[in-house]
Each structure stands twice: as C-alpha cells, then as structure tokens.
Amino acid sequence: MKIGFTTGTAILALATGLGSVAHAADGELRVVYRDSSFVTAVMESAEEAFESAHPGIDVVLESISASSRDYYTKVSLMNQSDSTAPDVIYEDGFYVTADAAAGYLEPLDDRLAEWDDWSKFVDIAKQNGTSFVDGKLYAIPLGTDTQAIWYNKNVLTEAGLPADWQPESWQDILDAAAQIKENVPDAIPLNLYVTKAGGEASTMRGLMNLLSGTPGALPATLYDPADGKWVTGSKGMADTLSFLKTVYEAGYLASDNELQDGNFQHVLVEQRAPSDEVGMFIDGSWIWSRWAETGSAPWEDWTDVIGMAKIPTQDGGGNGFTSMSGGWTIAMTTYADDKDAAFDFLTTVADHTRSLQYSVLSGAVGVREDVNTDPAFLDANPTAGFFSSLVEVTNFRPALEIYPQVSSLIQETMEAVTVGGASVQDAMERYDSQLTRLAGRSNVKAAE
C-alpha cells in the first residue's frame, strides 16, 4: 500500500504528533523514502515480493517529495518520536553517521554476517552504510557513483592528444591542459569546481578527487578515522591547493564569472561540452544521463565525442588512480517493532533483482559484484563497465556532524587560492585555524 506525502505540512504534522499515525501497527511495516520514479518502482517491487513471502504483514510505502536536504530534515523529525518514526528508511549514505549517533538507526552487523548475499557486495561500497564514529554497519548500500575525467575527443585530437587519452599523474593533466590552451584557444582546457558557488561539487569533485590521490589519501590529509581526528598542515592538502592555484593562474579554467556562477555546472555539461568548448572536466558517473534521449540535454552523438579517463593519483603511486563516491542506502530504525521482518525487507530491496533494477533505472553504479557484471546492467548504461571498475579505488567523505561546516571551509580555501589570489601558505594557515575552531583542539591533529 503506497501513501504519498508531498508537502512539508503533512510531514510536520506527522513529526509533531498532530494527526500522527503509529509508526507501525500490528502486521504493518512502514517504509519511508524520497520520491522518484525509480525508487518507487524498486520499493513497489520489494513490497510485492516481501508480502508474498510474509503473509499477514502489510508494507506501507510513504513517499516524500523533497530535495535531498529537505528529505533528511523531514525524516529526522519523524525519527524523534516512537509514534511517528518509520520502520525502514531510504537513507542517503552521507547522513548514516549522524543518524546512527542520534540513536535513530539499528546496527546491522550481526544480521548481515548471516546474510549470504552480503559477501557479494563490493567491500569498499559497504563504507557508505558504515558509521565513521563506531565503525558499525547501519545501512545496506543500494547504489553509488564514482568520478572521472570526462573529455571531448574532438578538442583533444585538435590539440594533438590521443582520442584514448589516459593521464598517469597530475603532471599529465597539466601538460594536456597546456596543449589545449595553445592549440584550441576557444575551448576551456580543464574544468574544476573551485569556488563557494560550486558548493559540495567544489569540495568533493574539485578538491577531494585530487586530495584522495596524495600519499596517505584522506586519512592522512583530511580526517583519520583510526583516531577520530581531523588533520591539519598536511602536505597533500598543500599540494592539492597548489595544483588548483597552478591551473587557475595558467588560465586553464573557466572565467571568474563562470567559476562563481552556481548554474555553470549545468551550462558546462549541457552546452559547452556538446559544442566542443571544453577539453576536460572532472565530474560524476551520472553525467551521461543528461545526454541520453530522456535527459535534460539530449545529445545523440555523445558516445562518439566524449571519452572517459581515470583520475590519476598525484604521481601515479598507490593504486595509480582514485575517485570519490556517495550514494543511497536502506536502513532499519531502532523503533521497528518487528526487527526480523524489517531486516527481511531490507534484504528484499537489496537483493540481486532489486539492486539490478535500481542501478538500471537510476543510472547508479552497482554495489553488488553480480550486478556490475550483469549483461542487463552493462547494456543499459554505456558507461557502466568503466565507472563500476572505479569502485575498487574510490573513497567516501567523512560524513560527520560538522562535515557541512568543514566542506564550506574547504570551499572558502579553494576560492581563496584561485580567484582570491591568496598564497597557499596563507590559505592553509587560515584553514588549519578555522578547522581547529570548528572541530575543537582535542579532535584535531597535525599531519605526520
């Protein structure tokens, strides 16, 4: 049975107890999710399969139409009371740590250890359902994304670069950008989001894709989960900021006006790339869907024109390549009366059938090895094989409660060394000082 909520008023009424409904009546399992056509299709498929296997239990699907952030706010309000909390929630992996720390989510480690299918999940993808605080698993990942360098073959070949270009280090990226600037002056050589206008795209896609490729990766340069401390004064952070300053000052990036335009992300992908006006841009695995027939900017020939390259580590060391990931999960709340039934619903949503359906319909990278090799998945997404291969080298953000503030500080620091003209040393000193203030001195350590 599906119930849709499309207004904040309805959700607030639920969350505050005004006209509220019990979180799970006998024989009912309440499932809350963020509304979209593909999530609804997966949930309805799981509902049918679950109810067939569990006679007497009625799955109540409740969809919420909202942005990711508003959805999280509304679900958090629901979870503040036993009378309004659902049994199962569709959870952005970015919020798992905070919700687990708040006591909203039930740990799943023991149950997952007994679920045969759990061994079929890509190990690194499991991080998206794991708390950064206690290391326990609180959610099952449904799909993820990875990042790469998208490039225009027409621009690269005109610049004298190969159509199957693959950089092996940051220097290779700099060299390619220099060739594009010299030989194709009408094209932006390289796009990176480097200002506050880019928001989280600047933090994750502009900086962390590079930072994660420095020695020690994110634990040595940003946040070390081993001792729960944020890192200051790291060489990796300084080198990453120096790279951003270099590409900016060399004129490889877009204009200042474009870099400070929050809408430029859409202009770049939907207008500049199809018009051969950008050489390379680091972005997420979902970008191709905008060029699909049903996308926001259909582009029939994109598979002939656009190539994809892995993001190299700084000097080719470590795994050689790197990426960043996010993605959505399915979780059980601590309020679920019948936790066995709730867990069975989680595994129904995350089984091979529904995981395949989720990845095909959403364009997400699969988190199950048997999905990533399934012909149905590979045939539906022309980039599937490439982006799935990056899951092995990907990284996840330290999704702690103060992360949004740290992310904002990172954006300010990136903007300072680029359009702001600040030195890397000055920007680093301010970053370290502000990070210490945000996290508290006891939660910060100097890089080794």
TrEMBL record:
Transmembrane segments: none annotated. InterPro entries: Bact_solute-bd_prot1, SBP. Keywords: Signal. It comes from the Bacteria. Residues 1-24 form the signal peptide. Pfam families: SBP_bac_1. It is found in: Periplasm. Belongs to the bacterial solute-binding protein 1 family. This is Extracellular solute-binding protein. It comes from Psychromarinibacter halotolerans. The lineage of its organism: Bacteria, Pseudomonadati, Pseudomonadota, Alphaproteobacteria, Rhodobacterales.
